[in-house]
Write a sequence for this structure.
């Protein structure tokens, strides 16, 4: 009989209070809504629940540039007018606005993912969940696509302290460009992204983008068209992930489960169901157990 996985779940009660502004698609309040579903369905009883520690400046600058993190520390809606040059330099704008508590939000988001990686490294959990994370567009020196700090890259860097190879799988409708860029020249991290491609943000993720130098052929992109459903998605996902995991043999797997690939999303154009998303995670878990 299979052993039930030990799940570490990270949630900060303040996360739902942050507000990107009127009309902005990114609403942290939805994280609180998801958490309330866990409470009301008593799913939390099957997990170890933790409040994530705030990521430190030292942790954040393991990937991000010092001056960029210092900018996020000091910028506020009240003083942003006097920092116009930096705002332009760091790609702050409509998609990535300055809002009250922006740096605290970044520290909480990144802190959960880093803490999850630490739990995995010390074998205190088999699975770690941080729904305040997944901010896969953020770059070393700039914000992008609603993302200011790339918690995924920071978590992978933590995992690399223990695991020689880490596999990153992205099922968000947008290409996981920030994570791919961070590890584009190494074979210690393989990035796999399933995404809409073409005249669509961020415009990267061509099937011919395969990595460079030591990382050549360790970046895998699977561009997809509008309207893909569960059956078609699974027919692509299962054999590809099976082959990758058999060949690459990762010590840890990181997954970005962007809900914008679900049917009816405000920004998305795919036709996936929650059940279809779940089957992707089920298959990753199954393949991980096969290798352990």
């Amino acid at each position: 009989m299979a052993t039930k996985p030990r799940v570490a779940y990270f949630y900060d009660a303040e996360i739902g209070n942050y507000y990107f502004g009127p009309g902005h698609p990114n609403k942290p309040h939805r994280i609180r809504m998801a958490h309330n579903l866990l409470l009301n369905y008593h799913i939390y009883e099957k997990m170890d629940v933790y409040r994530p520690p705030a990521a430190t400046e030292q942790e954040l600058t393991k990937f991000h540039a010092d001056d960029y993190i210092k900018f996020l520390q000091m910028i506020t809606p009240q003083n942003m007018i006097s920092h116009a040059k930096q705002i332009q330099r760091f790609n702050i704008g409509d998609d990535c606005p300055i809002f009250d508590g922006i740096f605290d939000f970044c520290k909480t988001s990144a802190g959960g993912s880093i803490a999850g990686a630490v739990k995995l490294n010390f074998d205190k959990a088999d699975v770690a969940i941080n729904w305040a994370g997944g901010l896969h567009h953020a770059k070393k020196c700039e914000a992008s696509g609603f993302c200011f700090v790339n918690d995924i890259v920071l978590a992978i860097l933590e995992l690399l302290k223990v695991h020689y190879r880490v596999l990153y799988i992205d099922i968000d409708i947008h290409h996981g460009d920030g994570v791919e860029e961070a590890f584009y020249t190494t074979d210690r991290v393989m990035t796999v992204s399933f995404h809409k491609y073409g005249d669509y943000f961020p415009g990267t993720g061509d099937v011919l983008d395969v990595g460079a130098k030591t990382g050549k052929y360790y970046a895998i992109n699977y561009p997809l068209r509008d309207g893909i459903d569960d059956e078609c998605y699974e027919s692509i996902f299962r054999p590809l992930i099976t082959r990758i995991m058999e060949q690459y043999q990762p010590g840890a797997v990181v997954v970005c489960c962007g809900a914008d690939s679900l049917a009816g999303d405000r920004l998305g154009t795919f036709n996936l169901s929650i059940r279809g998303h779940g089957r992707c995670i089920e298959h990753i878990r199954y393949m991980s157990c096969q290798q352990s």
User: Anything to note?
Assistant: The radius of gyration is 18 Å. The first strand starts at residue 7 and ends at 10. The chain has a mean pLDDT of 96. The beta strands are 7-10, 48-50, 127-130, 166-170, 189-196, 219-224, 252-256.
